[in-house]
Amino acid sequence: MHLVGQRALQIAVVLIGLNLDLEQLIASSVEYSALVSACVIMTLVVGLALGSLIYDNRKYNLLVCSGTAICGGTAVASLSTTIGARPEQTGIVLTIVFCLNAIALLIFPSIGEWLEMSQEQFGVWCAVAIHDTSSVIATAARFGDDSAQIATILKLLRTLWLIPLLILVSLVENRQHSRLGVPWFVGLFLLAAGLGTLLSIPDLLMYSSSWLSQTLLVIALYSFGTEITRANVLNFRGAVVFHGTALWMAIATGSLLFIKETV
């Protein structure tokens, strides 16, 4: 079921690219690349420091921090192979990520409306503060189409940080046969954005791709939700839950305050 959700999400992101303007994509990436990079680096540094104070488990620490800083379940699953994490360790961190994603999906739009955030502000906030791409897009889409577009662009920019992280961890772990999980759908997303910009695509095809994308996002959210099993919940460790929750709340609150003042 996880594979179904992952493939549905990847295809949905590619289809979203058809509705984007490549010039806007490049402009947004340049404008916000410093903010996205700062959030990723700060989350990793603060998270690793906090984790080392809470418990003496390097693998849990790396999984929680990478999932929070970069791309949620994708980062956790990719990194777990590189560092040789046990299945139960990966499952516990994935469950925490999915639960926090669900909370963000429920409360972020209400917070955005209460603070009277603009479409741009809310999209940027979702992109830097929510773990998984599917949850970022779904949450931003609840606030508006413009918010969903900017959130999609910046979240994919944030996801690219997975590549240097995996390379660095692979070198540190000295695992020559570690599998490097590069998100291939980012390239197809850029290609679709280019085609959407250069070609005159019929309105019916654009509408159909948008509808199919939203449908696939719903399927992805449901599939990822099924990953939260009773066994994983019963195996929760208080220190890991506290670490993941505290780190997420810190980055969500800090980025919100900064975005409200500067964007």
Would you give an account of this structure?
Helix content is 84%, strand content 0%. It is mainly alpha-helical and 263 residues long. The protein is globular. It starts with a helix and ends with a helix.
Give the distance, in angstroms, between the N- and C-terminal Cα atoms. Answer: 38 Å
How many strands, which pairing sense, and closed or not: the largest β-sheet?
A: none
**Considering DSSP H and I runs of 4 or more, what fraction of the residues is helical?**
over 70%
Q: Taking all residues together, what is the mean pLDDT? A: 81
Low-confidence stretches: none
- Taking all Cα atoms into account, the compactness measure Rg is 18 Å
> How much of the polypeptide forms β-strand, as a percent range?
under 5%
Task: Give me the count of strands.
Answer: 0
Number of separate helices: 12
Report the structural category: mainly alpha
Q: Overall 3D geometry?
A: globular
SSE sequence, one letter per element:
HHHHHHHHHHHH
Question: What key phrases describe this protein's structure?
Answer:
single chain; 12 helices; about 85% helix; mainly alpha
Compose a concise summary of this entry.
By secondary structure, the chain is mainly α. Helix content is 84%, strand content 0%. The protein has twelve helices and no strands.
List the helices and strands and how they pair.
Blueprint: H1 2-18, H2 22-54, H3 58-83, H4 87-114, H5 119-129, H6 133-143, H7 145-159, H8 162-173, H9 185-198, H10 203-225, H11 230-234, H12 238-262
